[in-house]
């Protein structure tokens, strides 16, 4: 019976187990079915999208750091710094209404004090409005759920910008200490979105050459080097997404951004500053419309300073147009050197040939050529070619070209071609149209009309357009032994601190003329400074060679105002730098290439020369007032005697009974003075080396904290103070 009962009970238990297992299996099947439905149906796709939107924000761009722009020696001209857009996430998991309302007043006051673009009341209104919008949206979500409506609510209150302007990292750290914002981000809702901004540590120095970027940095460069090398500077953006992990939003990088290349320029910050200041001062003095100054190294072609200043309506001057490359004007008398070089090389004249100028008036085919002195009525008779350059005679230049090229003008332009001034070159700054190229007429050129008087007028710099950079390049060729090289600004491209590409000057013309012609031209340009129109440029420190220029500015079919210029090199006997200065439409003072631009040239040249002067050992004469023997440290007498003996001095003046001495030098020999010590008083260790000082102090029961190297220049306890055993004394060595 008992066995039968056990079998019945076992069957009942197994039945119940079977029922439970069946129910569990049914639930498992239902779960698997529901999961499959969610995974594979359109409904599942919808819920996955909802989940991702709640926990993941995809495809956020990581802006790369834009490359830096440097001077030749590593000084920053333009760099990127991080700025932050500040938001509050009012749907942050830990944000509490009572805490927010408790601190909103004090938070608003702090923000208004730090960022006054909004008042405290406005900050309070922005913050509370964000919270109220969250509450409204939460009620709407709850209402949809209660009614079983499957509809999403767009969260307008999710991210609200609190501070109008982007702020620095220092400011961001500060606001994280403000009331309410000093909590973790999942409670405060504080979100800072990083972006890059462009900064120029030297302010407006060479700002037109360096260029600018758009306010939205993603658009890249807007002008200058920033535009020229935009594709290299901007780098390659990365990709990230924001994901909520344990209630906290975190950035997850999918593809890191690649930083842009750095651009190293040829510019020298010191020379650039000298150039800008010298030009600006003269522009303000003359109230000119604009001005240009460029200085370059003769041998390398590297532009060390470049200033392009335009006048604003309020009379100030700022870096505006790239005038050095783009100002298309008749160059005037600086072009006369080109004419003489061509004529000398073609054998048309030699420096001693003379031409009749009379009172400086010359008629040719119905038009009159005037020299600058013609109103004086002085009859100068004949002037040589060299004198024509020195006093800048238009008549001499006209008669030179008519003598050699009147019946064959093509030969004159071909000579200019041979020099290299008609070559079209690309420069380091973005330009458009004919800007940046020279426009020199050719007899059969249909685009640029060649008249019956074009030839003589071209000889002294009219009826042609040449930007300043070409004039600079030509005169640098003279200084460089006849080798014409293209001036340039970009020296190297770097990536991660390593040079990727070095740039060197492009040779435009290996030899502009023969050595004989070059020597003759150099003598004439030196004569301009010592005897002619450039006498005001003469320096007391080094010889200068160059040429003045004055031309009227073409305007509306006539002429309005003047363009004055000076171009030359220094020192003339060993050229290091070539410099061009041009001033357009000065309003005050007599327009003069020497008196205006020549003075600026001289200022730049002398300051640059002094700044970069290199003295030879012969220049470094010994100052008789300086001590000729080295200073000896105070300390142990025996070691001091050993040092004196090594220096060739007799230690007779030392007191042999004194163990510690102070040593002085009286311009003839060393003398010692006893250093009195007292076991109960702090010793005087000033002037001692580290070994002697530490020994004495520790011997007297003091602990020593030593800083620096050399000899003791300061001790924290005054000599003679009472010693407290075990006290720490600090000594500083320099």
**At the first level of CATH, what is the class of the largest domain?**
Alpha Beta
Q: Please state roughly what percent of the residues sit in beta strands, choosing from under 5%, 5-15%, 15-25%, 25-35%, 35-45% or over 45%.
A: 15-25%
Give the terminus-to-terminus CA distance.
110 Å
CATH architecture of the largest domain: 3-Layer(aba) Sandwich
The CATH superfamily of the largest domain bears the name DD-peptidase/beta-lactamase superfamily
What proportion of the residues is helical, as a percent range? Answer: 25-40%
Number of strands: 30
Structure overview:
The longest helix has 39 residues, at 2-40. Strands 2, 3, 4, 5, 8, 19 and 20 form a 7-stranded mixed sheet that branches. Strands 11-10-9-24-23-22 form a 6-stranded antiparallel sheet, sandwiched between helices. The chain folds into 4 domains: 2-40; 59-262, Penicillin-binding protein 2a (Domain 2) (Alpha-Beta Complex); 269-611, DD-peptidase/beta-lactamase superfamily (Beta-lactamase); 635-733, Trypsin Inhibitor V, Chain A, CATH 3.30.10.20. It starts with a helix and ends with a strand. A hairpin with a 5-residue loop joins strand 2 (69-70) and strand 3 (76-88). By secondary structure, it is an alpha+beta fold. The radius of gyration is 41 Å and the shape is flat. Helix 1 crosses helix 2 (42-55), helix 10 runs antiparallel to helix 19 (593-611) and helix 12 runs antiparallel to helix 18.
């Amino acid at each position: 019976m008992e066995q039968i009962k056990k079998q019945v009970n076992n069957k009942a238990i197994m039945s119940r187990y079977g029922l439970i297992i069946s129910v569990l299996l049914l639930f498992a099947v239902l779960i698997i079915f529901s999961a499959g439905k969610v995974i594979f149906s359109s409904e599942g796709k919808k819920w996955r999208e909802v989940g991702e939107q709640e926990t993941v924000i995809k495809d956020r761009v990581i802006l790369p750091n834009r490359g830096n722009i440097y001077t030749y020696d590593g000084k920053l001209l333009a760099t990127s710094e991080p700025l932050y857009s500040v938001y509050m996430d009012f749907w942050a998991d830990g944000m509490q209404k009572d805490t927010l309302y408790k601190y909103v007043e004090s938070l608003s006051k702090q923000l208004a004090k730090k960022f006054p673009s909004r008042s405290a009341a406005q900050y309070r209104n922005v913050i509370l409005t964000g919270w109220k919008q969250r509450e409204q949206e939460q009620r709407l979500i709850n209402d949809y759920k209660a009614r079983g409506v499957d509809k999403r609510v767009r969260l307008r209150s999710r991210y609200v910008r609190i501070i109008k302007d982007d702020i620095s990292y220092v400011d961001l750290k500060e606001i994280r200490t403000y009331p309410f914002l000093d909590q973790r981000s999942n409670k405060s809702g504080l979100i800072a979105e990083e972006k890059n901004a462009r900064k120029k540590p030297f302010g407006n120095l060479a700002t037109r050459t360096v260029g600018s970027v758009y306010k939205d940095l993603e658009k890249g460069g807007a002008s200058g080097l920033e535009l020229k090398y935009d594709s290299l500077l901007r780098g390659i953006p990365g990709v990230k997404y924001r994901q909520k992990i344990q209630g906290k939003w975190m950035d997850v990088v999918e593809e890191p951004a690649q930083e842009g290349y750095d651009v190293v320029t040829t510019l020298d910050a010191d020379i650039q500053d000298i150039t800008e200041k010298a030009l600006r001062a003269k522009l303000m003095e003359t109230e000119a419309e604009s001005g240009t100054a460029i200085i370059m190294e003769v041998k390398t072609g590297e532009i060390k300073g470049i200033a392009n200043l335009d006048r604003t309506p309020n009379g100030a001057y700022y870096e505006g147009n790239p005038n050095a490359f783009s100002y298309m004007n008749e160059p005037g008398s600086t072009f006369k050197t080109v004419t003489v070089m061509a004529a000398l090389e073609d054998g048309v004249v030699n420096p001693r040939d003379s031409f009749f100028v009379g009172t400086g008036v010359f008629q040719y085919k119905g038009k009159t050529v005037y020299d600058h002195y013609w109103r004086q009525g002085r009859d100068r008779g004949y002037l040589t070619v060299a004198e024509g350059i020195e006093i800048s005679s238009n008549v001499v230049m006209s008669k030179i070209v008519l003598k050699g090229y009147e019946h064959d003008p093509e030969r004159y332009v071909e000579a200019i071609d041979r020099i290299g001034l008609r070559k079209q070159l690309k420069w380091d700054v973005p330009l458009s149209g004919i800007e940046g190229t020279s426009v020199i007429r050719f007899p059969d050129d249909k685009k640029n009309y060649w008249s019956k008087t074009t030839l003589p007028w071209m000889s002294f710099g009219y009826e042609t357009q040449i930007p300043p950079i070409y004039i600079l390049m030509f005169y640098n060729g003279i200084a460089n032994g006849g080798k014409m090289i293209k001036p340039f600004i970009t020296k190297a491209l770097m990536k991660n601190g390593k040079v990727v590409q070095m740039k060197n000057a492009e040779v435009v013309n290996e030899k502009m003329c023969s050595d004989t012609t070059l020597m003759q031209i150099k003598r004439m340009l030196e004569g301009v400074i010592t005897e002619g129109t450039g006498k005001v440029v003469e320096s007391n420190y080094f010889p200068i060679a160059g040429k003045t220029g004055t031309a009227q500015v073409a305007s509306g079919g006539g002429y309005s105002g003047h363009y004055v210029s000076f171009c030359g090199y220094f020192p003339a006997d060993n050229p290091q730098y070539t410099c061009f200065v041009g001033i357009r439409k000065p309003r005050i003072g007599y327009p003069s290439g020497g008196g205006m631009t020549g003075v600026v040239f001289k200022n730049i040249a002398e300051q640059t020369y002094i700044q970069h002067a290199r003295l030879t050992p012969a220049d470094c004469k010994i100052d008789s007032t300086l001590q000729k023997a080295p200073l000896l440290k105070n300390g142990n007498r025996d070691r001091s005697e050993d040092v004196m003996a090594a220096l060739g001095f007799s230690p007779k003046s030392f007191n042999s009974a004194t163990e510690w001495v102070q040593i002085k030098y009286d311009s003839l020999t060393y003398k010692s003075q006893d250093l009195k010590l007292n076991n109960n008083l702090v010793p005087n260790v000033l002037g001692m080396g580290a070994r002697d000082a530490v020994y004495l102090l520790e011997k007297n029961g003091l602990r020593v904290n030593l800083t620096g190297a050399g000899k003791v220049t300061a001790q924290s306890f005054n000599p003679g103070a009472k010693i407290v055993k075990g006290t720490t004394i600090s000594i500083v060595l320099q």
